[in-house]
Amino acid sequence: MANEMAERERGDMISADKVTGTPVYNQAGESLGEVYSVMIDKLSGRVAYAVMSFGGFLGIGNRYHPLPWSMLHYDTSRGGYVVNIDKSTLENAPSYGENDSVDWSDRAYGKRLHEHYQVPPYWI
User: Fold this and answer.
1) Would the pTM of this model clear 0.90, i.e. be above it?
2) Please, which contacts does 32-36 make with residues 24 or more away whose CB atoms are closer than 8 Å?
């Protein structure tokens, strides 16, 4: 088991399955949710989004918010990612429910998402 863990984390690198479940905070230290999944562009190999689960109770009624990966900064003292947004920005962001589907190849959706957070699209 120890060898497997060593293979999954080396220096500044981390396995995608270890990112899932990592807490996300705003700069005020408020918990916003946790990373539900990581979306990777298959063609470029770039990490595009961290999909964060937000809201709900005991996993019921969760909303999923894709955050552009460039917004997340890992804080070793918190053991989680920090983003420069407040809860109202997140609440009004593009999101989807557990029974919804997202067309990740839809550039219009991606553009709207990046415009909401005021960050350049990962594909530029």
Assistant:
1) no
2) 32/83, 32/85, 32/87, 32/90, 33/65, 34/80, 35/81, 36/62, 36/64
Nearest to 85 by CA among 113, 47, 44, 63: 113
Phi/psi region, residue 105 (left: phi>0; alpha: psi -120 to 50; beta: rest), is: alpha
**pLDDT, tens only, 26-72:** 999 999 999 999 999 999 999 999 999 876 555 556 789 999 999 99
Task: Show the domains of the chain with their CATH numbers.
Answer: 2-117 (2.30.30.240)
Q: How many CB atoms lie within 10 A of CB 9?
A: 11
